[in-house]
Design brief:
By secondary structure, the protein is α+β, with helices and mostly antiparallel strands. Helix content is 19%, strand content 33%. It has helices at 55-68, 89-98, 108-111, 169-174; strands at 3-8, 11-20, 23-27, 34-38, 46-50, 116-117, 128-131, 142-148, 151-155, 161-165, 175-180.
């Protein structure tokens, strides 16, 4: 996520975004497309770099990228934690957050006690969002990860892990609360 600057002297002529493993993405200088380049190929013209994300924002972005790796993973209520062939909502959130050393309880109603309360109007990427379900009555029975723009990534029913609006249909009517666990 760091921006790398290249050119001669102290005047940048082009830049790229570092994506890890010695690679960066940048606009092609000859075509109208984005290309991936090895940073080492350009080390002679490297001027410097600048971090544009705070450590917390970088963690939030990485968390969502990790969650996306599970898109389409089938939903099975009560799926065993520790395997990723199938997942339920809380094993999904527990798995994703554990990747970054954040330990969550196994079930959604217990996850809703973690971190600090966040109002719906102040949601940030990486916040946990909680809902009731047909089987949970008035109690919390579902959790997702807020990704921004009114969307969450979660797993429930047909299609498994997916992106869904928290402001439409079932989810809008059954929203309960949100918690911030990224400090």
């Amino acid at each position: 996520g760091d921006v790398l600057f290249f050119g001669s002297g102290s005047k940048p002529t082009f830049a790229g975004i570092y994506v890890g493993q010695g690679k960066m993405v940048m606009a092609s200088q000859s075509k109208d497309e984005v290309v991936t380049r090895n940073v080492s190929e350009l080390k002679g013209s490297f001027i410097g770099g600048r971090s544009i994300l705070s450590a917390k924002d970088r963690l939030k972005a990485e968390l969502i990228l990790t969650a996306q790796k599970y898109l389409g993973t089938p939903y099975v209520f009560g799926a065993k934690y520790g395997q990723t062939k199938t997942m339920d909502c809380s094993s999904f959130t527990k798995t994703v957050f554990a990747t970054y050393g954040i330990t969550l309880p196994r079930v959604s109603r217990d996850q809703a006690k973690e971190g600090s309360f966040v109002s719906k109007s102040n949601l940030q990427t990486g916040d946990l969002v909680f809902f009731t379900t047909p089987d949970s009555g008035k109690n919390i029975g579902h959790v997702g990860i807020y990704v921004g723009n009114g969307m969450m990534i979660h797993t429930y029913g047909e299609g498994g892990v997916k992106f869904t609006s928290i402001n439409k249909e079932w989810w809008a009517d059954h929203y309960v609360t949100a918690r911030r666990v990224i400090k």
